[in-house]
Amino acid sequence: MVEIHLLRNEQENNLVAVIDFFTLKCIAMKKLFFAFVVLLGSTAMYASTPPEINEKVLKAFQETFTDPKEVNWHEYENYYEVDFKQDEIKTQVRYDADGNITGTTRYYFEKTLPPHIMANLKRKYPQRSVYGVTEIYAENDLQYYITMEDDKNWYIVKSNPVGNLDQTEKYKKAATK
Questions:
Q1: How far apart are CA 46 and CA 136, in angstroms?
Q2: Could you say which of 48, 55, 129, 138 would form a disulfide bridge with 103 (CB–CB 3.0 to 4.6 Å)?
Q3: Number of H helices, E strands in the chain
Q4: Is residue 177 domain-resident?
């Protein structure tokens, strides 16, 4: 309840309204606090109920990956996806309902790239350095997308497992002051 008092100013012959802002502020803070508690509670409830992953998929995951960190499962209409880190490699794995891996995406740095691909990169692009690697496996096909850089540009170089290289994209770096 907000209190409003009417005072008569005798010298100026006016009525002055005085509003108790402390009470108004308390009410506003209570409403904000209540909204925050409801939001926090609903977020915690949503976050604490991971999707139910079927036994075949869980078993396949646990047999394949030892000691994964930061594991997060997602359930989609026709597949399951798990995101995790293992040995500093960020990984996404997709499973069908029978526990078969249907695809993977891994993000890592130069040191994890197969040596023959790294040697081909250094030979073909000696003035560039490797910034990062995205490894994608899907439908019995494995491709490496290597992000490289020099002083002026970013490059995306695609490699197959044999080490055949193809530059697919080039971007100018933003000017720095």
A1: 30
A2: 138
A3: 3, 10
A4: no
Q: What is the pTM of this model?
A: 0.70
pLDDT tens profile 40-53: 554 444 444 567 88
Residues 76 and 39 in one domain: no
User: How many structural domains comprise the chain?
Assistant: 2
* Domain shared by 126 and 93, yes or no: yes
Q: Which helix (H) or strand (E) element contains residue 125?
A: none
HSE-CB at 41 with a 13 A cutoff on CA atoms is 6
23 and 103 assigned to the same domain: no
CA angle at 63 for the pair 59 and 65, rounded to the nearest 5°: 115
